[in-house]
Amino acid sequence: MSVAIRNVLTARTDRAARRFSHARVAGGLVLLAWAALFWFLLISGRYNLYLSTRTSWVVPVGAVLLTGAAAGRLGSSRVRSPEPLSTREAWVLGLMVVPVVLVMALPPATLGSFSASKRTGFTGAGLATPVGDIGTGPLTLIDVAAAQTTKEGEEALAERAGSTVEFVGFVSRYADTPADEFLLTRYIITCCVADATIAQVRVVNVPPGRFQVNDWVDVRGTIYPVGREVIVDASSVQEIPRPSRPYITP
Known about the structure:
Blueprint: H1 3-17, E1 19-20, H2 22-44, H3 58-75, E2 78-79, H4 87-105, H5 113-116, H6 131-135, H7 141-147, H8 151-158, E3 164-172, E4 182-188, E5 197-204, E6 216-226, E7 229-239
Parallel strand pairs: 5-7
Antiparallel strand pairs: 1-2, 3-4, 3-6, 4-5, 6-7
């Protein structure tokens, strides 16, 4: 028998002897589930509900890497000595898929008014807006929030009293909030929703009863910083759809 024929027969025998490893197949399916989640977040745009613009690159990179890992794991699942899948390992792998099911099955939601009452104000975390930026140009909620972290920022913002501003955020109220006022709130995230802090301004001169808690609005008016409180005397308040990027990044 020639060497070539013997090699072919050996290869066929080797392939026939290989069997699927339940452990490898299960692991590959878990990786595939997570890859599907990342592709889902990327295609649907839902990653904007969880990550800042600084870290959104994780989603496409994760989708590609997890897809490759799943393909490699499943492609190598036929082995000579199959690895058994214990009950404990099956439970662990099953629990790893639970977050995937929850994210894909539940309707998309963002942090809202209820969470705002339990969050701290913006602390800057080394990303505070320079005082020069607060003193000139259009004011943003990032500017307002960052100005409240330092004495110099408060003074720079105070000098902007009477300036016209336009802010987008959602409506928050407390039990003692007057009917013609609300707190315009926006979450600031540096990495993801886990590190979210809030930026808030007090909006006055609002039509009573027109806007409900968690409604997204576009507010235009005149800004009046009073110490650490920032008041916006509204000239117009328009309800708008929730932005595709509900959180802002310093």
